Amino acid sequence: MRLLQVNLRSLLLYSLVLLLISIPISFLSIQAILNEEIDESLSLQADQFARHIQSFEYLDDLEMDLRVFDQLSYNIDIKPADRSSSDPIFNTVYLYDELGKETKPFRQLTTTFVVKGKPYALTARTSLVDNHDLVLAIGFVQVIVSILLTAGLLLLNRRLAKRIWKPFYNTLERLRAFELDKNETIPLVESPIIEFNDLNKALSYLTERSRKVYLDQMEFIENASHELQTPIAIFQTKIDALMQSPHLAQPEAETLLELETTAQRMSRLNKNLLLLSKIDNGQFWEKESVDLPAMVQQHADSQKPVAELHGIGILTTLAPLHLNANKTLVEILVTNLFNNAIRYSTRGEDIIVTTQGRTLSVSNKGKQLAISFEKMTERFSKESADPNSTGLGLAIVKKICDSAGYTLAYSFDGMTHTFSITFSD
Amino acid sequence: MKILIIEDEKQLVKSIAAVLRTEGYVCEIAYTAAEAEEKIPIFDYDCILLDINLPDGNGLKILETIKKHNKTDGVIIITARNSLEDKVMGLNLGADDYLAKPFFMPELIARVSAIIRRKRFDGSNKIVFQEISVDLIGKSVSVHGRELDLTKMEYALLIFLLANKNRVVSKNAIAEHLSGDNAELLDKFDFIYSHMKNLKRKLTDAGSEDYIKTVYGLGYKFST
Fold it and tell me: Do A413 and A302 fall within a single domain?
C-alpha cells in the first residue's frame, strides 16, 4: 500500500464517521431550533389575539362570533374553558390533514384568556415540517457531501501523488538505475518538499561517497598492479642472469624456466587486473570506425600457426560489419574469444568464427562444462588447470560488453560451445 | 657505444647495466631525473633507457630536454605503467621505442641493438655475421650470398637470436617476442620448437654453420 493511500484511508474513515455522527446531531438541533422559533411565534400570535379581542368587548354577541371564528379558522381553536387561567402549554401533536391526506405533525400552544368575564381556551397551532422529510433532506445532503468528499480526496490524492511525489519517484528511478561502476552519480534535484530534499541530499552524499570509495579502490588496484611490475622485472632480469651461467645442470635449468614462466604469469595477471580496472574507470572511451571482419581475419591468420600445432583449424565466415567502437577494446574481445576457443577446443576440430548482422560468434567443439555461464564470466573462475590461463579472459570480455552495452551470449548444444557478442548500433 | 640508464630502481639498474656491459656497451646510470638532466646536455649517448616514473618527476620531461638540446640519442621508454596514452605521448615526444615492465632481457637487448643500428647507419642497414647476411630494409636473409626463403616468424626469430649472440635466450622470451600477448596460449614451446627447427634446417641447408644450439630445459643460444 502506498504511503499516501494509508494517509487517505485514515482521513476518509475519520470524515465518514464524522458525517454519520453529524446526521442525528444536525437533525436534533435543527428540530430544537425550529420548535423554539415556532413556539415563539405561537406565543406572539396568542398574545396578540388575546389583546386584540379585548378591544371588541363592546360587541354583544362576541360569544357567538368567537364560536364562528373557531369554526372558520383552521389553525386556531377557541373553546369556553373551565378555569380562568392556566400556564400556556406547548406540545407537538399529529393531526390528519385532509388536504394532503396524511398525518402531519403540528406544534400547538394552549393558553386561556378571559372575555367579558368568561374564560376561554385558545389553541393556536402551526404545521411542522415532517420529521421524515427533514431526515431525508439532511441525509441526502450528507450523502452528497460524503460522495463529494471521497471523490475530492481521491482525486486530490491522485494529483498530489503525481505532482508532489514526482521528485520522490524520480529519485527512486535514478537510484534503481544507479550502478557503482558506471561513471555517473545521482544528481541533486531541488524539490519544494523538505523531506524529499533531505532524502535527495542524503542519497547524493551516499552515492558520491560510495563512488569515491569505489574509485579509490580501483586506483589502488591500478597502483598496486603497477608497483608489482617493477619487482617482477627485477626478478626476471635476475633469472636471466642465472640462465647465462655455463654450468647449469638440466634440472636447475628447468627450475629456472619454471620460475620465469611463473614470473610471466604473475605479470600477465597483473596486466589483466589493470585492464579490468581501466575498463571500469572508462579509460577506453575514444571511438573510431572498426572493420570487424578485417580484424577477425587478421587474428585468425596470426593464430593459425599456434592452433595448427594442435590440429585445430580456424574457419571464418565473415559478412561485412562496421563498428563505431573503441578499437583496443574490440581487439581485446576478439583476442580473448580466440584464445578461449583454442584453449578449450577438442584437438583436431575446427573453430568457427562468423560475423552476421551485428553479431560476432566464436564456436568450438568441446565437452560439457562443469560451471555455468555466469560462473564462467566471473574473475578467476576457470575450467582448466592450465597455468597459462589467468582466469580473467572471459571476465574481461564480459566487462567490456557490459561497459560498451554489447550483449554477450553463450550456448551449448551438446557438442559445440558458442560465444556470441551482439554489438549495439 | 654509450648507453644512459635512467631508472630509480637500483636492483633493476644493476642487472640491466651488468648485461649491457657484457654485451660490450658502456653504461652510465642516473637514478633521478635531476641527474639525468645534468648528463644529457654534456654527453652524447647512443641510446637512453628512460623510466618515465621517477621519484623526482615525470620522465617525459626528460624527453623534452633531449629535444631541446637537439640530441639524436635513441630513447627507449621503460615503464611499469603500460598505458596507451603514455606510449602515444612518449612516442610523440620523440622516444624511439617503448617497453613495458616486466620485460625479458633478450627483448631489451634486441631493442637496444635495433635502436643503435638505426642511429648509426641512418636507417639503411644490414646485419652481417660470418656467412649470414640480413637485409633489414628488404627483410631478407642470405647465406653465402644465396637468399633464403624464410617465413615471417623465422625471420623474426633469427633477428632476435642474432641480437642475443652467445646468450641463452629462454623459450619464454622467444614466445613473448614472437607472439606478444598470444604467448598466453597453451603449448607455446611446441610452437617455438617447430619454427626453430625449420629455421635451423633452412640455415644449414644453405650451407651455414649450425650456430643455434639448444640449451636443454631452458631455450636456445646463438653461439659463435
Answer: yes
